[in-house]
Amino acid sequence: MGVSTSSPEKGPQENGIAVVTVDFPPVNALPVNGWFALADAVRAAGRDPQVRCVVLAARGRGFNAGVDIKEIQAQGPSALAGANRGCFEAFAAVYECAVPVVAAVQGFCLGGGIGLVGNADVIVASEDATFGLPELDRGALGAATHLSRLVPQHLMRALYYTSRTATAAELHAHGSVWRVVPREELQAAALELAGEIAAKDGELLRLAKAAINGIDPVDVRRSYRFEQGFTYEANAVGVGDRVRDTFGKEKHERDERDGAQA
């Protein structure tokens, strides 16, 4: 359990690839230390002169379920502040990684997961992958900055306000997902693309990444930090806790009703 870095089997197209894998059962909802560990792993991989492409992957049913809400409920404001800082660092690490980052996404990609893939260079997704921001259902705000890198502005707003999700096929139609494959082919597809990227000159790739980031029309760090301020405000006035306290209760009540009717 945790964050690990590995190298794939060294085939002709796989030299120069580092695979950073997240594994926090059962749903990859990351605790505070998980976000910082992920940031450290991505930055370290990017600093390695032998690495020319990073694949960001996850084990389990889904790619990422965002922050660990139960940790915040148990520890209060300190955990909320820690989660905000941790997400900020992890998202920035992906964006600022010195080499291109390919996100390999399966199953659900929610909340903080959107921050990660929205800042990645390329996304490969499984056919069952879904993307969304349930922040308004979790007593928080944020990552609209990153969702707006995946879908057009009005669709971003509709998804944000409703907490609905978009499928990998829908994002592929918008051009933000490079390729959609069956789940069993996801790792191979991500490594194939990473291998094609890593076959380029490493020094030139690093210059290309810096150049592309330099012409980005949105300062993603500042934009996301602005959003985070409203999460703090929601918490300060009590609305964050009020909404967060309903987390999981609706499903529990529904299950109890269904059990009573059986």
Protein described:
With 262 residues, this protein is an alpha/beta fold. Helices cover 51% and strands 15% of the residues. The protein is built from 12 helices and 9 strands. It has helices at 32-47, 69-75, 77-96, 112-119, 144-147, 153-162, 168-173, 186-198, 202-214, 220-236, 239-244, 249-261; strands at residues 2-6, 17-23, 53-58, 101-105, 108-110, 122-126, 130-132, 165-167, 179-181. The strands form 2 sheets. A 6-stranded mixed sheet has the order 1-2-3-4-6-9, with helices on both faces. It is globular. The N and C termini lie far apart (38 Å).
Give the gist of this structure.
This protein is α/β, with parallel strands linked by helices. Helix content is 51%, strand content 15%.
Low-confidence spans: 251-262
- Spatially, the strands of the biggest sheet line up as 1-2-3-4-6-9
Oligomeric state of the chains present here: single chain
Tell me about the largest β-sheet.
6 strands, mixed
The tally of beta strands, per DSSP, is 9
Descriptive key words:
single chain; 262 residues; alpha/beta; 12 helices; 15% strand; globular; disordered C terminus
In terms of topology, how is this protein built?
Elements: E1 2-6, E2 17-23, H1 32-47, E3 53-58, H2 69-75, H3 77-96, E4 101-105, E5 108-110, H4 112-119, E6 122-126, E7 130-132, H5 144-147, H6 153-162, E8 165-167, H7 168-173, E9 179-181, H8 186-198, H9 202-214, H10 220-236, H11 239-244, H12 249-261
Parallel strand pairs: 2-3, 3-4, 4-6, 5-7, 6-9
Antiparallel strand pairs: 1-2, 7-8
